[in-house]
Amino acid sequence: MTTLPRPTTTLTADDARRIALRAQGLLGAPDRRAGVRGVLRHLGAVQLDTISVLARSHELVPYARLGAVGRQTVEAAYWTDVHAFEYWSHAACILPIEEWPHFAFRRRAYRARPHWHHELPDGAYDQVIKQLRAEGPLTATELGGAKKTNDWWDWSNTKVAVERALMYGEVVCVERRGWKRVYDLAERAVPDALLHDELDDTECLRRLVRLAGESLGVGTRADIADYHRLKGEQVDAVIADSGLVPVEVEGWGKPAWADPAALATPPRGRHRTTLLSPFDSLIWERARTERIFGFTHRLEAYVPKPKRIHGYFAMPVLAGGRLVGRVDPAREGRTLVAKQVTLDGPKAVPAVAQALVEAATWVNCTNVRVERVDAPELREPLTRELAGLLG
Question: Which residues make beta-bridge pairs with 93?
Answer without folding.
Answer: 47, 87
